Amino acid sequence: MRLDAQGQREDSGCAMKHLSRVSRLAACACLIALLLCLSTARSDAQTKRATEDSPALNDFLSRVNAYVKLRNDLEGSLPALKPTDQPEQLVERQQALAKKIAEAREKAERGDIFTREARKEFRRILRQQFQGPEARHARKTIRQGEPLPQMHLRVNQVYPEKVPLTTVPPTLLLKLPPLPKEVAFRIVGRDLVLHDVKANLIVDFIHEALP
Amino acid sequence: MVFAALASSLAAQQISLPLKPNSVRFAAIGDMGTGDNAQYGVAQRMTEFRQKFPFDFVIMLGDNMYGGKQPRDFEKKFEAPYKPLLDAKVQFYAALGNHDTPGERLYKLFNMNGQSYYTYKKGNVRFFALDSNYMSPEQLAWLEKELKNSGSGWKICYFHHPLYSSGAFHGSSVELRGLLEPIFTKYGVNVVFSGHEHVYERIKPQKGIYYFTEGASGELRYGNLRPTEFKAAGFDTDRTFMLVEISGDELYFQTVSRTGQTVDSGVIRRAPETQPAKVVAAQPAKARATQPASRRMRARTTAQRNVQTVAGPTLR
To answer: What is the spatial distance between Cα B93 and Cα B108, in angstroms, rounded to a whole number?
Structure first.
């Protein structure tokens, strides 16, 4: 009996030890999960901050929206263009729109949209992207395009039609502020470009933005 | 002598697709818009093959026009080489490559309707043409929504940058894969076509999805394929195009070189929703080229019986 009882006690002691090990493990797992959640939440919050809660980026988006309103008004003054099988119409239309925008923004300078404060924010996001865990793949995405010729960008310049586009790393696009469909981010060399899609025009850019 | 050459040429142009009634038939080309002789050669071969395999449309996997985008470029790099197909009312559905410009979205003959990503349906197949140059969160959300609502038919995605590639020049788009593959698997995408790497390649099924790279319909990177664990078949010594037929739960494919040689072929059988599809048969080019037609057919039939066979030794 004693033995049994002892055995039982021993067993129950073992079970208690086992239980306490299990509960310790469970507690550890919970703690790790909690830390992971917190870290994800923190990282989400950082991303959110980068795109939504930053006064500099909000100001950037206001400037982008003002540009889009201007270019949409200008586009509205041109005859509407539907899909056409006449390439002449496509080319003429693009040129006409680019010319109108360039004329309307004759005095536009680099930094009008990417202001100094916005540039700081963009550089921070880019640094995070290209020095973080996704850096290797993001750099590979950029390198996957054909090497570009040396280009000296300027505002209101038409993006050269013979120069291929560099693929913008999709994980970077997840971190950058969302743009209206009329404009897109482009990467040319180490420059980050704001590109008017239909007019094929360089709206503004950050020189040597990529680390 | 002439007769022998003619017979050989006809044998080379043999169609290995079943031509089932009411099937969905299309061709796939990528990286073609050079305007040089090679593009015209492939286009001519496509026209010849269409006499035997009347496909209704062509999917374009990007780099539809290299270099200039002036009206004369549209003529030289698209309208002239594919004129016989355009005259026969064959429709072209383009995806944009890194050498294309957004302006091409409004070119009616590319059927993009002003969008850089779009979807359309042919028979029991839903196609999704994506813009892999700019995979924005908006595009990802759109894709997820469209796939979710796309029903139970075949789901085929195509875009320029390959998620898996044995090409030495570019290789796999790993970052893009990390974003797209979970969506593809979640919503049951069956087959993916890409270009960018100037070779032909078929990838072993990855998470139940079949990947093809057809980036040699104009450009070519001779000898650029290297050994990888995921390569099922490849061809990098001449330009190619693909012919595809979908009937019920079967997708038949045949990849043809500029000289009319079949360099790869096979059948993908779509299994019930949750299971990956299986390639039933495929033939490497060298074997096909050296066997007489009757033996080729026999080999294919034998392979077709073996439904578990996952095909094809690599060509290089």
So the answer is: 10
DSSP state of A86: -
ipTM of the complex: 0.81
Considering only the beta carbons, identify the residue of B71, B135, B175 that sits closest to A137: B175
Interchain CB distance below 8 Å, A184 and B134: yes
- In which band, very low, low, confident or very high, does the pLDDT at B310 lie, cut at 50, 70 and 90? very low
**pTM, 2 dp:** 0.83
In tens, the pLDDT along B34-84 reads 999 999 999 999 999 999 999 999 999 999 999 999 999 999 999 999 999
What type of residue sits at position A171?
Answer: T
Parallel/antiparallel/unpaired status of strands B154-158 and B191-194: parallel
Structural contact between residues A158 and A98, judged by C-beta atoms closer than 8 angstroms: yes
Quick one: DSSP state of residue B231?
Answer: E
What is the DSSP code string of B89-128?
A: T-EEEE---TTS-GGGGGBGGGT-TT-SSEEEEETTEEEE
Q: Is B248 on the interface with A (CB under 8 A)?
A: no
B70 touches chain A (CB under 8 A): yes
Give the whole-angstrom CA distance, residue B69 versus residue B12: 36
Helix (H) or strand (E) holding B295: helix B293-305
The crossing angle, in degrees rounded to 10, of helices A116-131 and A55-76 is 110
Give the C-alpha separation, B285 to A201, whole Å.
46
Residues in chain B closer than 8 A to A161 (CB atoms): 67-70, 101
Q: Which of B96, B134, B165 to mutate to test the interface with A (most CBs of A within 10 A)?
A: B134
d(CA B228, CA B215): 18
Phi–psi pair at A168, nearest 5 degrees = -80, 125
User: What Cα–Cα distance (Å) separates residue B271 from each residue in A37, A135, B189, B265?
Assistant: 37, 38, 12, 19
Q: Give rounded-to-5 percent helix, strand, coil for chain A.
A: 55, 10, 35
Q: Which two tokens stand for residue B284?
A: 């490497």
Check the CA dihedral A102-A108-A111-A113 and report its sign.
negative
**Residue written as tokens 């066979």?**
B309
Alpha-carbon distance of A100 to A103, in angstroms, equals: 5
Cβ partners under 8 Å of residue A13, min gap 6: none
Reading the block at residue B254, the tokens are 């045949």
